[in-house]
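Lecture 7 notes: from sequence to structure.
We start with the chain below.
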Amino acid sequence: MKNNLMTRAGAGLLAVCTAFALAGCDASSSEAAASSEAASSESAASEEASPEQAEDAYAYLADFSLSDGFDENGYLKNVRANDYVALPELSTLALSAEANTVAQEDVDDYISNILESYATNEEVTGRAAAEGDTANIDYVGTVDGVEFDGGSATGYDLVLGSGTFIDGFEDQIIGHMPGDSFDVKVTFPENYQSEDLAGKDAVFATTLNSISEEVLPELTDAWVADNLSDRMAVSTVDELNSFVNDNLLFSQQADELYGQLYDAVEVEGELPEDVDAFFDNYYLYSPYQYSAQYGMTLDDFLSATGYGSAEAYLAAMEDQKASTIKQILIMQAIAEQKGTVCDTDTLNAEFEDYFGTTDSESYIEVYGENYLKMNVLHDIAMQNLIDEINA
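Predicted structure tokens for the same chain:
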């Protein structure tokens, strides 16, 4: 079951983890990845490092922590942000009426997303497969009448319309009834990763075993209490509405103020080399984790995904890296001016409000304590600024 609930600082934590996925793999590599799943049931490489991975020049990233660059108060280590950014007079900032008002439609949409994260799949009968259904299928792929390695699967669950398989594969399942057997005819992309299959016409003898559809839970006080009380500290539908409204309001206000600050500020001077090196590792960390899963060196993995090398990847990420550093410096500079810190006591006191859970140990295990402090520090500084402006 997915469980993506809205929190303030929690949204920032996802940024580094998804940076690689959102950075812009070229279309050919994305298509190859989707095609691979259609034509191969091979599992990802063992979690143990391959000999190639062990020789990776970036193997030190296995011990990297997102907290390495931050101190016990959530500040960049050995950096005074006000030495690098000149903030405008904060009293000159203003919030629009739009930023200070949350539309009920937005609250309803977000609650719908929460319900979708708790959706279940239930088997349906008496109708044909449709887009959005999960189709359970068996398939055997052949090229020129000969089966090829990795082209077969039994009992595979495929969400129709997800674009997971080769173009045209999922469309040819739509309209069939459970129990139907039929041929799915597709063409592998010219740039497909297997040269033996690239550009070839293939036939997948397919059986549709069953179909299921997504069913959302009914939003009631009892459901909220049973499912959201521990994570969001809400036990009724009204409390859930208030929680979502408050978080959306903060997001709108913070986005507008941050936009004004970002436009008004320039980063002056060069940061210490160890800070710059930390942010290089910050952006290499996510693709390194992927490369480790596949038993590849980081350079080989990034080459296979269209970037060429780790060095080329960092060059492509330079603008995003600079933007991340600027954001951190701006928010730290505000905290410095107000004397705001996020020490361990503050993190413990604020953790549930900012991350939507009391389970701090699992977060610390993944991100490290000081990275969490940085995220909470920035949100505290922003909330204080919002309160001053709206006073």
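Points to note: The first helix runs from residue 8 to 22. Residues 1-7, 21-47 have pLDDT under 50 and may be disordered.
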